[in-house]
Amino acid sequence: MRDIKFRGKRCDNGEWIYGYYVQGASNGSNRILHHGIAKRGYYPFAVFEPTVGQYIETVKDVEIYTGDIIKAYKRGDLETKPIENEISYRNGTYWFGNWTFLEFMNVFRSIEKTGTIHDCKECE
Question: Could you give the maximum distance between any two Cα atoms of the chain, in Å?
């Protein structure tokens, strides 16, 4: 069974936190959070809602979440230029460009996570 977990950038210090998604919960100081990520047994931390991403798969011991930027080569393609795209969620499934995530895992090789859409300098 697949793990259901999330990550998000904390509002107080900008660090990534991994755990369970909560909405409209208290953080222990009677403050209601619109969006939060909680580790098991801890109060949730407020996170920036656009940075919340759901865990999809682990590839080469690296966890892949929505919003991650992935670089990969098509299998059997002699081109040396990789395809780089964001992992997104639309129409009820995860996507890498125009490929569903399941198609992506079957069509591509040398999959590498290069960052997230939320870590670019232009986003700050």
Answer: 58
